[in-house]
Design a protein that fits this description.
By secondary structure, the protein is α/β, with parallel strands linked by helices. It has eleven helices and twelve strands. The chain starts with 5 loop residues before the first strand and ends in a 15-residue tail after the last helix.
């Protein structure tokens, strides 16, 4: 770390609010700057060695920050900064488990809607039909979680609250106490073969793209519901549309798709038993006080020469 003062540029929506909150913490040896438009960010970033904000925004100024040592993303996903065309000569950290509770709320909102036939009952109500058919419960159902990292672990914890059985597919980690059984990539078809719910929390990497393809969808039970709160690139979208159209799986809930906004001519707009939620599972880009606390903690570590929390690995992509 340079001996001279550290200079932080906050470049995101409500950057000024983040600046004011950090200023109250009086972090040592840190000068604070904020920008909410590209022109101002370019004017301020030249002497900064730390950036914080929206990865999409930060990508636009990476080449203009010669002293850059550390970037703190305000999101878990950092794909815009992982592009091979971007520099990778600095520490990159994300928000770790910060959005885990929100994503878990989202997932179980739709699992409960499915089990309790909430949408079907509402449709019956609109038609003046008294639908008193019995529903089932999540208890005892099997949820398979693709990606048991910070967010997947929280989903598994919530699943246990509802009395569900859990299994996880992971690249390496096997330390989540809420997972009953672990699987790895070469066991993917076995992993999906008996699930009631398949929840995807995977990042966008070369290893995960099109992971949920025709073969995987064919291996799912007909009763299965797919939920994706990871990245849209993980799913072969035409294969999923076909599986839903033919009734080969019970349904799908997608918070993310490959191209956002979804093109007007995309088959998903008219695919049966599919719910699209337009990338709203986690809180939006507004001010989040937890990010202030996270940055403050990581800054103290940075200033003290200690390892930072939630460092993103360039090679693995998360």
């Amino acid at each position: 770390m340079d001996r001279q003062s550290n200079r932080l540029l906050i470049f995101t929506e409500q950057a000024q609010r983040y600046l004011e909150a950090l200023r109250l913490l009086n972090l040592p040896n840190l000068e604070l700057y904020a920008a909410e438009d590209l022109k101002k960010a370019q004017e301020l970033c030249g002497e900064c060695n730390i950036l914080m904000g929206d990865p999409h925004w930060l990508r636009a100024i990476l080449a203009d920050v010669p002293r850059l040592r550390w970037v703190q993303s305000n999101y878990a996903g950092v794909a815009p900064l992982l592009d091979a065309a971007c520099r990778q000569d600095y520490l990159l950290t994300n928000v770790g488990p910060l959005y885990g509770p929100a994503l878990s709320e989202y997932v179980f909102c739709y699992l409960l809607m499915h089990e309790r036939r909430a949408w079907l009952r509402y449709q019956a109500q609109l038609q003046g039909c008294w639908d008193n058919s019995y529903t089932e419960t999540l208890r005892g159902k099997l949820i398979g979680i693709l990606g048991v990292g910070n967010h997947g672990s929280k989903i598994a914890e919530t699943a246990k609250y509802f009395g569900m059985r859990t299994k996880g597919l992971t690249r390496s980690s096997t330390d989540c106490p809420f997972i009953d059984a672990y699987y790895h990539r070469d066991q993917l078809l076995e992993f999906v073969s008996d699930v009631d719910y398949l929840v995807c929390v995977l990042p966008d990497t070369t290893l995960t793209r099109n992971m949920i393809n025709h073969t995987v969808l064919e291996s799912l039970p007909q009763r299965a519901v797919l939920v994706n709160v990871g990245r849209g690139s993980v799913i072969d979208e035409l294969a999923l549309a076909s599986a839903l159209q033919d009734g080969r799986i019970a349904g799908a809930v997608l918070d993310v798709v490959r191209e956002e906004p979804l093109p007007a001519n995309h088959p998903f707009w008219h695919t049966p038993n599919l719910i699209l939620t337009c990338h709203t599972a986690a809180p939006g880009p507004g001010y989040n006080p937890e990010i202030v606390d996270l940055f403050a903690d990581n800054y103290q570590r940075y200033a003290g020469g200690m390892p930072l929390r939630y460092v993103v690995g360039w090679a693995r992509g998360y």
